[in-house]
Specification:
The protein is of the alpha/beta class. The chain contains seven helices and four strands; from the N terminus they run αβααβαβαααβ. The protein has a four-stranded parallel beta sheet. The longest helix has 20 residues, at 11-30. It is globular, with a radius of gyration of 17 Å. The N and C termini lie far apart (45 Å).
């Protein structure tokens, strides 16, 4: 540990990071990529804003689901503005990670509803690497895997679910429907 203590992002910090994402998307498009990610899975920054465990803000970026989703939504909008229709936009969201910092399925579906018009491909990860350390019997008995199947995880989306997985030795994959 470095001993450094993180600080809450100020609005200028937020705008800079969102612009960095848009600039990176432009570079990817210029390099010939067909798809860009606004990656939010596994406690990456968009997920930290979405998660009530991490997000303790009292401004327009904290509190309600709509407010906690604001950073991710604004970032998706900035990326869409940057690449237009030249690139598809994908986003990964992790749900039911079996940790206190998780975003539950119901809130994830709420976010999908808010962001669906900006996302071309949903990449949904159910569970986490924490599950790898559990016994096979414990994994098999986890009800979260059943209620978070690929199609259920994006039930609020108009988009096809391209791929979803469980972080376990026996992943579940869904092909484009």
């Amino acid at each position: 540990m470095s001993g450094s203590v993180p600080k809450a992002m100020e609005k200028g910090d937020i705008r800079r990071i969102q612009q960095d994402w848009a600039d990176a998307a432009k570079r990817a498009r210029s390099a010939g990529f067909d798809i860009v990610y606004v990656y939010g899975g596994h406690t990456f920054l968009p997920m930290q804003f979405l998660s009530p465990f991490y997000n303790r803000r009292t401004d327009e970026y904290g509190g309600s689901l709509e407010n906690r989703a604001r950073f991710w939504l604004e970032t998706l909008e900035a990326v869409r503005d940057a690449v237009g229709d030249d690139c598809a936009i994908a986003t990964r969201i992790s749900v039911d990670e079996l940790t206190p910092a998780t975003v539950e399925v119901e809130e994830a579906l709420g976010f999908v509803g808010l962001a669906d018009h900006l996302v071309d491909l949903w990449d949904v990860n159910v569970s986490s690497i924490v599950e790898w350390s559990r016994t096979r019997a414990a994994r098999a008995s986890t009800p979260r895997a059943t209620r978070c199947s690929g199609r259920g995880a994006c039930a609020g989306s108009r988009r096809s679910l391209w791929w979803a997985s469980r972080a376990s030795p026996t992943p579940t994959s869904w092909s484009r429907s």
